[in-house]
Structures are given as structure tokens and as C-alpha cells.
Amino acid sequence: MALSISHRPPPPTKPLDPSLRGYLATNADIVTRVTKPVHMADIGALSAQSDRPILFENIVEKPGFRLCDILVKNRRSQARALGTLPENYLRTLAYRLRQPPRGFKIVKSGPVKEVIKLHNEADWTELPIPYHKDKDDAPYVTAMNIIRDPETGFYNSCHAGTHAVGPRRGLISFVTPHSHVIMRKYRDMGMDAMPIAFVFGLPPAYEIMANFSGLHMDAWGEMEMVGTIMDRDIEMVRCETLELNVPAEAEIVVEARVNLKDRFKVGEVTSPSMYNLPHYENLPEVEVSAITMRGDRPIYRNHQTCPDTDHQPLPRLCHEAVLYNRLSELGLDVKDVRFPTWGAALSCIIQFSYPREGMVNDALMLAMGAPWLNTKLVVAVSPDTNLDDPGDVYHAIATRCDPARDVIVVPNTRGSPYDPSARPLEGQYPWRVVGKMGIDATIKSRHDPADFERAWPRNWGQVKLSDYL
């Protein structure tokens, strides 16, 4: 039997640039460059209006820096991050995540060492760190960060939002379970502080891998896998004040230590569901010890957290690839898996062909039972549904789903702390409980295929109104 598309190795990809500035130059055709003067207070609102990578080149308050955002909001940009076409992107990422770690090369120096500021000179409020929402009390850092497992030596990474509350002080919100495991290891070893490096300005493939979530801590860390998904060697260089290595091609690195003893209350979290939830957190403190950066107007990487920006898809891109692999194992010919930006980071769309009845429910239950807290609503659709068009997805639900037979509802499951509809667990703040729903919006074998032939105007897609204006 011939292999389906989702079971075949992906086609070769283009070579990827080692640096962010190289990536932006190579992909200049999709980058919006803003050369007019822009105030820091407007950067978030302007970034969130873009669907493509955006680079601010003239920041009024921070003339020595540039700032970029919106690197992975849609499939076109995500595909560019891996050097492939949109139709091959997810298959490429899913395939590479099944490969062994490539590791990284240690080098003596790199572009990120062109400027070095140590101790009292290391003031991270000099960086172009924006406020993200009206209720923020401090500028908010959303950079990729790197910590090291003290037992295995593997490099773990994530995007832990950090409030820059002083020149050398921050309050950091670790969400991922692996970060908490590593922090506990340092405490169990009798240590009061954990080294951490905030890394700004790398090709987006780094950030995609940095958000991997799954079993891996006993075999590799995210940084050991970056070279695998980029299909190239990654160079790392020693920190100035920490026992850590960081990407040599980064634009900016902030070295710090996390205080493992004390916690500080911070209110109104910026959640990926676009609400101010949870309403408060008790966060550990970070103390900055060094800043290294490029000398030529370094590019600060922001990822604006609201409304629908990189903040919604980025932490879930590896989730999509993991589900792609799991669904393929069921024998489905998987076309795509999406956590859409408009889905509040609580919903997932799975798209596939299937050979017989019963497989859609299995696929829905597999996705609903994923280890993450963002599959509250799962919709299965056929390959002809346009996932880039929310209206087409809704049309499939409205016309291909019989709620009496095509909907699965499961009560009393783990809920997201970012979901206001979920019931708070008493004494377990900020955890919640919620139901889950799976919707089969595929074309069924019980349907007459002729019933689903769409009606379109003559010459639809062949003539453009703009040509007549």
C-alpha cells in the first residue's frame, strides 16, 4: 500500500540564515519595514495590526536599537522559518522533531559579544522594552530564555514573560512544567539562585523549537534540537557572568539569576486568550548581571502579547507537529493541524482524510486528551476547508455537523488558567476545571457528495474587482 502524504519524508528545504538580520534580509519580500519615527507607546498597537514580520527602524526614544515582531503569525511566515513552502511546513517540522538532536558547537566569540556591559552598567531598561497592555505596571519582556538542567546539562528554553521592574531587576512568570522541574532541582541542591539568559533576536526557528512541550528532558533540551529543525550547525558562546552558553548570532543577551527563595505579587497577567487572567501571580525575582549585544543597532525581538499576534500560535507550533505525528499514527492522511490565532489558544482544528467510520471520533478524542491545556474545543474538517478563513471553518461546522450525532462533550477535565469560562478550583489557584467538546465537521460517508458541491459565480477567482476600479 502506498504511503499517504503525511507518512512520507518532506522535500528538501532551502538553507537557513544563522542570524535574525540575515533572515530578515533573505525574506525581505514579506517584511514590513517601518522607517518613519515611532514612539515606544505605539509599537504594540502597530505590531498587532500586521500579519507579516515587521521591523521598526526609527524608534524615537531608543534610536540605537531596532525592534521586530510578528515572525510566525501565519503559515506563510512559519514556512519561511524552516525554509520550505506552506503546504510542506507542518510535515517538515513533524518529521524533524522525530530526528535525533544535532547538538551545538561551542565557539570562542560571536557577534553578540561586540558590546559587553557588566554588573552596574548592565541596565536592561535601556533596551526598547514596550508595555503590552493598558494594565501593565512595567515594561514586559517576552524574549526566549535559556536555563540549564543541573543534572543532565541539557539546555531548556521557553518564553517566560518578565516584568522589567528596575534597571537590573525583573519578575518572571514561568509557565512550562519543565522550567519548574529545573528550578526544583536547583533548590534540592541547596542553591538559592538559578542562572538564566534572555536571548533577543534570532531566526524564528529557534523560537519554534524553544516552545516544544513533551517528554524530552532525559534525552535532550530544546537548544540541542535547534540545529535539527534548522538542518544546520548552531554556534554557542560562553556567557560573561554565568555558567551558560548562548547563541553566538543573537542580537542581544541579558544574563541574570533567578532568586529561588522569594516571591512577589504581580497583577493582571496578559494571557494568550486575550484576557487579564490570572488576575495575579506570585513570581520569582531575576537580577541582571550582564548585557551583551551587537554593535550595529541591535534588533530587539518583541512578541506583542495581545490581541492576536505571535503570542497565540508560537507556543503551540510544536503542539501542532506532535499532533500531526500522533494523528498519522492512527492511519489518517493528515493535511494540517492548527491552533488558530483567532481561537484564543483554547481551540484546535485537525484536517485529514480518513478511510472508514469511527476514525474521526478517535482523532477528536486524541486531540482533546492532549497533555496541554489548549484543546478545550477541537474541530475536525475535511481537506477542502480553508483553515486560513474562519468563515469557511464555521461554514463547515454549520453545514457538515449534526449536533445530535457529530459532537462529543466530555465534562470535568483540566481547564486553562486563561479560560474565564472554566470553573476555578477552590484552594488550587490559578487552576480551573472545564468541559471539552469535539466537533466532527467533515464530509461523512452517510452524506451525498453532490450535496456539498459549493455554488460560485461564473468566473469566480478569475476576475478581480480592483481591475475595474
- The number of helices is 10
What is the number of beta strands?
24
Largest pleated sheet: 9 strands, antiparallel
- What's the rounded overall pLDDT mean? 95
Task: Tag the structure with descriptive keywords.
469 residues; Pnp Oxidase, Chain A; alpha+beta; nine-stranded antiparallel β-sheet; six-stranded mixed β-sheet; 2 domains
Molecular structure report:
With 469 residues, the protein is an alpha+beta fold. It folds into 2 domains: 5-301, Electron Transport, Fmn-binding Protein, Chain A (Pnp Oxidase, Chain A, Roll), CATH 2.30.110; 330-446, 3-Layer(aba) Sandwich (UbiD C-terminal domain-like). It has 10 helices and 24 strands. It has helices at 20-26, 40-47, 75-82, 86-96, 177-188, 204-210, 222-230, 317-329, 359-368, 390-400, and strands at 32-34, 54-56, 66-69, 105-107, 115-118, 140-141, 144-148, 155-158, 162-166, 169-172, 193-200, 235-238, 245-247, 252-259, 264-267, 280-283, 285-293, 299-301, 333-338, 347-353, 377-381, 407-415, 423-424, 432-441. The strands form 5 sheets. Strands 5, 6, 7, 8, 9, 10, 11, 14 and 17 form a 9-stranded antiparallel beta sheet that branches. Strands 19, 20, 21, 22, 23 and 24 form a 6-stranded mixed beta sheet that branches. The chain has a 4-stranded mixed beta sheet with strand order 1-2-3-18, with no helix packed on it. The radius of gyration is 23 Å and the shape is globular. It starts with 19 loop residues before the first helix and ends in a 28-residue tail after the last strand.
